[in-house]
Amino acid sequence: MIAVTAACGGDEPPPPEAPRPVTIVELRTIDPIKPLQISGSVRSWNEQSVAFEVAGPVDFIVRETTNLDGRWIDEDVVFSEGQLLARLRDREFVIALGAAQANLEVAQEDLNLAKTELAELLPARLRAAEANQTRADAEYQRFVEARKTNAVAELDVIRHRADLDQRKAETEEAKAQIDAQIVKIRSLEAHLDQATEALAQAQYDLDRCSLWAPFSGEVSEVFIEAGGYAKVAEPVAHLVMMDPIKVDVAVSAARAAQLRQGDPVKLYPLAGGETEGFVYEKATAADPETRTFRVSVLARNGRVMAGLPDDSPLRELPRIEVYNRVQRLNVAYEDSPYMVDEQKALQQDEQGFYVWASDELPPTQTLDPAHPVLTFRKVRVVPGEERRNYQGLFIARTLADPGVLDGDWVVAINPPKDFEGGELLIAIRDWQLRPGQIVPTLLGGQPPKRGLYVPIRAVAPSGERDRGAVFVENGGKVRRVPVHVVEVVAELVRLEAQDDAGAALLADGARIVVDDVHFLQDGEPVRVVGTKELLP
């Protein structure tokens, strides 16, 4: 008999379960504005090509990038003078104005003389004619009666009858002269009106020799130089309004329905910082290709010192925007005199002429953008007699005695009026926003606060409103941490621990599980298979 024995393994323990594979993110404090930002296209609120209303040679025109204050006139009331953009040579218009003024004076004198004749001379003539007619009529009647008794001859009666007819004709002529004078006065009044209009037109044409900026803005392009000939209605420059400025964004129909005119908007210029605006208008119809609606944001546009941090102590220094290197009038000749900008660099006091100059920047070096500062001192000079107009950009004046100046020196342009020597910051103030740029835009409400954020899927719900839990991986196991959901920002949520113990675990660097959190248990072993970057 063969015995068969079957082995039973019921007493051996089952093999351990493999740790659950999970993906984590490293917790850190972030400022999650970027998920809410949309790209806005910066546009000018107003731009215009400006032209003269009269033709003539150009005496002066501003340079490109010049910022001008606009002229504001309402019903002939000047609220703001504004700044000059260009000017024509006006000699021809001054002569025309003088001629129009003389014509007006002649027309006024002719009218005054005609009125005097109508008021005094012609009535006197009429009265004299009427008196002569009365006398002639009496004489005629007397001779008619005398003829009845043959006291006078028939010829005498005929002669007095002719005299009476002549006096009647003179009376009618005097009346006709009065009527003609009235008509003449009306004609002279019309001529006076024409002369008055001609004078007004001449004055208008003369005034239009000066072209003022129609609104405040920056000259983006100049189409003619000083010395050129400007034609009527032909643009001479293009002016772009820079403040306020418009930002257009495209949003969905649902987002457009939530926005109201006047809603706050945050703009984040690429140069740094932020500025505020508000919703100005929404498009009536959607774009047929993208099915999005255009929303226009109106924002103020400030000017900042490019390249310098807001807290830089250099901002406290007196500032200039540009300097000029000392050059010879004719660079081809070594004995040519040196020159300076007569209007913007050459100054005068009781002791004579001087410029603010610095020798700290040799021709082979450039200004340090991190420290754009030079030390300027007063240098006495003696100006020469020769001047040269460089297309209206500046007036160069030679120096009969340049003092210590040579090609190694630079001269300050438009230094502060109260400057007494020392360091000057060379920094141009540039616009925060320029048309054509793309700027990150945050529509509506306040931006989210800085804090601890995790993806929404990393929070396991607890059944209570704004409550849940996250799992922190540490040493191959997870710890369940009850949290309060403070704020939802796109796909992220800002968390705060519900107790002090949880707060100790929710610190920068904590490893938060983001996958399958609904199935995790407190203390469960896990295996990290991937780490995702937490992007704001």
Question: How would you sum up this structure, described in words?
Answer:
With 536 residues, the protein is α+β, with helices and mostly antiparallel strands. The chain folds into four domains: 21-27 and 450-532, Beta Barrel (conserved putative lor/sdh protein from methanococcus maripaludis s2 fold); 34-89 and 209-306 and 437-447, Efflux pump adaptor protein, beta barrel domain (Elongation Factor Tu (Ef-tu), domain 3, Beta Barrel), CATH 2.40.30; 92-207, Four Helix Bundle (Hemerythrin (Met), subunit A) (Up-down Bundle), CATH 1.20.120; 314-427, no CATH class. The chain is 23% helix and 36% strand. The strands form seven sheets. Strands 19, 20, 21, 22, 23, 24, 25, 26, 27 and 28 form a ten-stranded mixed β-sheet that branches. Strands 1, 2, 31, 32, 33, 34, 35, 36 and 37 form a nine-stranded mixed β-sheet that branches. The protein is elongated and about 185 Å long. Mean pLDDT is 89; it is low at 1-9.
Describe the secondary structure blueprint for this structure.
Elements: E1 20-26, E2 29-30, E3 38-44, E4 47-51, E5 56-61, E6 67-68, E7 72-74, E8 77-80, E9 84-88, H1 91-148, H2 154-207, E10 210-212, E11 217-222, E12 229-230, E13 235-240, E14 245-251, H3 253-258, E15 264-267, E16 275-282, E17 293-299, E18 303-305, E19 319-320, E20 323-325, E21 327-328, E22 338-341, E23 347-349, E24 352-358, E25 373-389, E26 395-401, E27 410-412, E28 422-426, E29 429-431, E30 438-443, E31 451-455, E32 460-461, E33 467-474, E34 477-489, E35 492-497, H4 500-505, E36 511-513, E37 526-532
